[in-house]
Design goal:
Belongs to the SHL1/EBS protein family. The structure is a single chain. With 218 residues, the chain is mostly beta strands. A 6-stranded mixed beta barrel has the order 4-5-6-7-9-8. Strands 2-3 form a two-stranded antiparallel ribbon. The two termini are 31 Å apart. It is 5% helix and 36% strand. The chain folds into 2 domains: 125 residues, Bromo adjacent homology (BAH) domain (SH3 type barrels), CATH 2.30.30.490; 78 residues, 2-Layer Sandwich (Herpes Virus-1). The radius of gyration is 22 Å and the shape is elongated.
């Protein structure tokens, strides 16, 4: 832990201006951007300090949105996806607008309802080089894309792989009515799909089936 400089003292918490919300080190916050037309920045608070003039500053570690990364936003990036960067900064605590929660990818896929303050992170990101950790993740479907939790997928009962409806020639509405699905490789000519009541809709954390051993970088 970084040492507090002379004339400064560590604070256990900070109350966001105009609210009763309390922020502590280790929690995630929304920070006001310079360009107010942009969404708030997301950061993890590493330390809270107060100087001898009672000014409160926070040391933060920034989360990047996909579009802020060198590679940009890609098809499999979810709307609430963030990358934990190696970019640290010190900001006035007055720029904190609110609190948020950055879940692990696994925990995010378990959420029954995603609130405005819910985000998820599955990659760490080196801001200078654009490198990701991990540099490979499981891919699904014929298109061999990593899972985007915003997209509906159907699971083949044969190979247990997951598919985007469009990639197997069905609409989202049709996919929602499937009780059984077999991909082209696994199905017989006369038994491809049957009408439904319920079905698994994503390769989330509740799936007990390991994806095919394919990996792809972010």
């Amino acid at each position: 832990m970084a040492k507090t400089r002379p004339g400064k003292k560590d604070l256990d918490s900070y109350t966001i201006r105009g609210t009763n919300k309390i922020v502590r080190a280790g929690e995630c916050v929304l920070m006001r951007p310079t360009d107010t037309s942009k969404p708030p920045y997301v950061a993890r608070v590493e330390k809270i300090e107060q100087d001898n003039r009672s000014n409160v500053r926070v040391r933060v570690r920034w989360y990047y949105r996909p579009e802020e990364s060198i590679g940009g936003r890609r098809q499999f990036h979810g709307a609430k996806e963030l990358f934990l960067s190696d970019h640290y900064d010190v900001q006035s605590a007055h720029t904190i607008e609110g609190k948020c929660v950055v879940h692990s990818f696994k925990n995010y896929t378990k959420l029954d309802n995603v609130a405005a303050e819910d985000y998820y992170c599955r990659f760490e990101y080196k801001a200078a080089t654009g490198a990701f950790t991990p540099d490979r993740v499981a891919v699904y479907c014929k298109c061999e894309m990593p899972y985007n939790p915003d997209d509906l997928m159907v699971q083949c009962e044969g190979c247990k792989d997951w598919y985007h409806p469009a990639c197997v020639g069905v609409t989202i509405e049709e996919a929602k009515k499937l009780d059984h699905f077999m991909c082209a490789e696994c199905s017989s000519d006369d038994d491809i799909k049957k009408p439904q009541t319920t079905f698994s809709s994503s390769p989330g954390s509740d799936s007990k089936v390991e994806p095919k051993r394919r990996k792809r970088g972010p």
